[in-house]
Amino acid sequence: GTHGSATVTGEVDLAAYEALAPGESAVGEVRFSLAFRGATTPLLTRVEVTRTGEDALQVSTLDPILLNAANLGVGAGVQKLKELAGLTSISLSVPTWFNLHLVRADG
Fold first, then answer.
1. What is the DSSP letter of 72?
2. Quick check: 94 and 66 in contact, CB under 8 A?
3. Degrees to nearest 5, angle at CA 75 with 71 and 80
4. Spatial CA neighbour of 94 closest among 62, 70, 61, 59
5. Closest by alpha carbon to 7, among 105, 98, 101, 104?
6. Taking the mean position of all CA atoms in its chain, how far away is CA 29?
7. How far apart are CA 56 and CA 76, in angstroms?
8. Number of Cβ within a 10 Å radius of residue 84
9. pLDDT tens digits along 5-34
10. Chain centroid to CA 101: how far?
11. 49-62 per-position pLDDT tens digit
């Protein structure tokens, strides 16, 4: 079977980084939500925002975002995978990062 896809929704306060010159970076926080299998989880992470051009920013997580398979409703599937693979243990926590390239669109 398949578990489908996850959707991440959030906002970066672009005005807070308007003064950055190309190549400069600043650290901030981003609140976002992760929607997966009908449940939405609010999350907060530290990010580094780098101006990569006049109308472009790169937003990258500084720390891993730890997602817990049990909290996302797939813990039983992970345990089944452990059994099928003959593993003595398997972590339910999955470290996740993101790296976004944002470009201002005219109009």
1. T
2. yes
3. 175
4. 70
5. 98
6. 12
7. 42
8. 8
9. 888 898 888 888 999 999 999 999 999 998
10. 13
11. 999 998 899 999 99
Q: What distance in Å separates the CA atoms of residue 12 and residue 32, rounded to the nearest whole number?
A: 9
pTM above 0.90, yes or no: no
pLDDT score of 2:
65
Location of structure tokens 């099928």 = 84
Tokens (6 digits) for 22: 């190309």
Tell me which long-range contacts 86-95 makes (C-beta under 8 A, separation of at least 24): 92/68, 93/66, 93/67, 93/68, 93/69, 94/66, 94/67, 94/68, 94/69, 95/64, 95/65, 95/66, 95/67
